[in-house]
Amino acid sequence: xxxxxxxxxxxxxxxxxxxxxxxxxxxxxxxxxxxxxxxxxxxxxxxxxxxxxxxxxxxxxxxxxxxxxxxxxxxxxxxxxxxxxxxxxxxxxxxxxxxxxxxxxxxxxxxxxxxxxxxxxxxxxxxxxxxxxxxxxxxxxxxxxxxxxxxxxxxxxxx
Amino acid sequence: xxxxxxxxxxxxxxxxxxxxxxxxxxxxxxxxxxxxxxxxxxxxxxxxxxxxxxxxxxxxxxxxxxxxxxxxxxxxxxxxxxxxxxxxxxxxxxxxxxxxxxxxxxxxxxxxxxxxxxxxxxxxxxxxxxxxxxxxxxxxxxxxxxxxxxxxxxxxxxxxxxxxxxxxxxxxxxxxxxxxxxxxxxxxxxxxxxxxxxxxxxxxxxxxxxxxxxxxxxxxxxxxxxxxxxxxxxxxxxxxxxxxxxxxxxxxxxxxxxxxxxxxxxxxxxxxxxxxxxxxxxxxxxxxxxxxxxxxxxxxxxxxxxxxxxxxxxxxxxxxxxxxxxxxxxxxxxxxxxxxxxxxxxxxxxxxxxxxxxxxxxxxxxxxxxxxxxxxxxxxxxxxxxxxxxxxxxxxxxxxxxxxxxxxxxxxxxxxxxxxxxxxxxxxxxxxxxxxxxxxxxxxxxxxxxxxxxxxxxxxxxxxxxxxxxxxxxxxxxxxxxxxxxxxxxxxxxxxxxxxxxxxxxxxxxxxxxxxxxxxxxxxxxxxxxxxxxxxxxxxxxxxxxxxxxxxxxxxxxxxxxxxxxxxxxxxxxxxxxxxxxxxxxxxxxxxxxxxxxxxxxxxxxxxxxxxxxxxxxxxxxxxxxxxxxxxxxxxxxxxxxxxxxxxxxxxxxxxxxxxxxxxxxxxxxxxxxxxxxxxxxxxxxxxxxxxxxxxxxxxxxxxxxxxxxxxxxxxxxxxxxxxxxxxxxxxxxxxxxxxxxxxxxxxxxxxxxxxxxxxxxxxxxxxxxxxxxxxxxx
Lengths: 159, 779
What we know:
The complex is a heterodimer of chains A (159) and B (779).
Chain A: E1 5-11, E2 14-20, H1 26-33, E3 52-55, E4 58-61, E5 73-75, H2 77-84, E6 89-93, E7 105-110, H3 112-118, E8 124-132, E9 135-142, E10 148-152
Chain B: H1 22-26, E1 40-46, E2 52-58, E3 64-67, E4 98-99, E5 105-111, H2 114-122, E6 125-130, H3 137-141, E7 156-163, H4 167-173, E8 176-184, E9 196-202, E10 207-212, H5 217-228, E11 235-238, H6 254-266, E12 269-273, H7 276-282, E13 289-297, E14 303-315, H8 326-334, E15 344-352, H9 366-384, H10 388-395, E16 402-403, E17 409-410, H11 415-426, H12 428-440, E18 444-456, H13 460-465, E19 475-481, E20 487-491, H14 500-512, E21 519-522, H15 540-567, E22 574-577, E23 580-583, E24 589-591, H16 592-601, E25 614-620, E26 625-637, E27 644-654, H17 661-680, E28 711-716, H18 733-749, E29 759-760, H19 764-775
Parallel strand pairs in B: 1-12, 8-29, 10-11, 14-15, 20-21, 27-28
Antiparallel strand pairs in B: 1-5, 2-4, 2-6, 3-5, 7-15, 8-13, 9-10, 9-12, 13-14, 16-17, 18-26, 19-20, 19-25, 22-23, 23-24, 26-27
Helix pairs in contact in B: 9-10, 9-18, 14-15, 15-16, 17-18
């Protein structure tokens, strides 16, 4: 198993020419051979998702792939972050959340369609925590008057 | 206690500022143990059998493999407990002659890469002669059960037993007896980052730096130095970014001892990164208990007496420093929970088996005992034909301070108020109507409540009362300001996701009139932080926070004295606010950094009245405080499939003053998610020979975001007098309360079938089996 193969991994736009054993998983190559340790290993059997990277724009489990299969455009968390630069944009909308009228804060699970339905008259800050498929996970916090601020604190692509 | 942080005028405490630790973590720039390069990688060869005698270990040629014979000078891990008949047992860091659980480390294979180390480990041939073992705690109690350790007379390693003098009479007088038999299956805390260690020898100093995923860096240093027989000064322990601990990273890890030993032998760096299989089978487990609870109620449905029998399966060894007695003894001490219990009897045993050792996991015994007493209350409510909320209202403690039947002093809480808020939010009458209509359509909705108290932030006396050989409790905080006016807060607590770098900065910011961004919290490094106990038992915000306040006040006093000289005013007239020292009621002010500069570079101004520099350190060791909460949830149970869907989950929590409500919410929501996992999904399964059947995350099922419902969080803030900041701990509460709320809701939903589900996790299989039994069907 020790015969190494020369490959080039393109991670966040930078090319890494490395020599790996055929059995080397993509996540090990990203972390160990390319020094990009932002991608983590959680279970090594494709359940936990900690090792997820973007390969040609598609999310893949980098623990379930060999490095030699991945000579494509790879984006890792480091690449997402450098684009995001923690930009926030604010939208001011109205919202109605009847079940939350007494709540100081809450975590809700809503689809984008639901989110629109919620928008009317309560005073809440909505922080989008993460997106999973068509579901947004947002945090709501009551602020002052009858406005909802939807704070898009998630990472954005591009400027 | 001092009112400085109690009153108004708090600028930063109470605000949901963003976590100062997050930018690096969110951008993939954290530094975790497994990120460090090492010259050598270690793979542990582990026992494939639950009980056996090692006949032979054949090491491959031309490879470095270390076994117990190489480590003859290293002492076994043998924590002490001086009470409750505890029998001290030892765990060799690598198995010597006997193996006692599947996964026990036998040998360490060393390679240049993980893959090479695994190849070498595969070539290690181990011959083990089977001996009789036992995996289940009840089986281990049976006559003639094989002994896990020869030096114990039976497999009972510890037994807590108590009865109040009036117990028998109180029980005999009671109007009604209600009994619950409960089974909590074994669980694994499952931090996303499994355990990892990296030991590096430094030739110039002959010291070793152990970087590892620990919640207790200082005690790890002490313990490893003791076991290896090296001066503590030659070992530095660093806890870098740690990806969750939940208690699993609190206890001493045998593998880390091997790493330090190897680094010294090789005079190089070695690392081990635990894989998920190892974590599931060989880290630490918890919550494997049988509880039998009998409540004796008077005619008004008030508890007259409570008796409990607890059998905790503690596995094959005893964890350091708490010992394996922590589950049974905490169950005994805290089972009465938030209720007035006048008479009490308990027998709580810790039982050795040939399974992975037990160690603390978020909540320790309390998720199980809360489940037990909350099931009891619901069962009693049904028998008295009361709403679950009503029987709780009649029994909850309302007068404070309250001395519990087990001697715990409970400070003021909001037990009834949190219940009332939760019940109002649920709108019970409306729910009952909806439940009735749904049942008519063959849909089964249920409502579950869970009220509990959570003992947090307890200091030295509480641990001493347990008789522990190592008695944690206090914390030291050191505050220093550098000449540029930036502050470093060094603490012995060791946060690993709790947000203390932010919350402690908020606390100190208010004492010094600075923005939190100017306060850097340093922790998790025995060379940089004062000796301390680490982060566990919902203690750090209370204890490290209190120490930080006291240390910051010393710095505050010094700053005021210097400002008084520079501004020609009395120190009492100086206020520190918005980064400046100001003479109250005037416009005379100077930036705080000018005071810092003077304290280091202009000491001639002060005629020797002060020592140079700005530093303050302090110790805090509180008595402890009880937070409390009510969890309420609504579920729908599919009677055909046994699937449980959680529709609503409400938490009304009282943890005193919230330093950062957003961080508090995150702690509670995370705990609730773990509690829901415990209630519905997570189960470590052993077969009767002690072989473990749940070695992947496809078998052991932590909840995913799909299973976690919206969680509505509400807070009541009872500002306790027992802590310096008015805050109570809350790290474990979410996990403590959630399982009981879920199980009570399931039982409420299934009430028409006359079944009781008193086992967690309440898997679809168990629910289906109970429904089949109730309907008399066999398939």
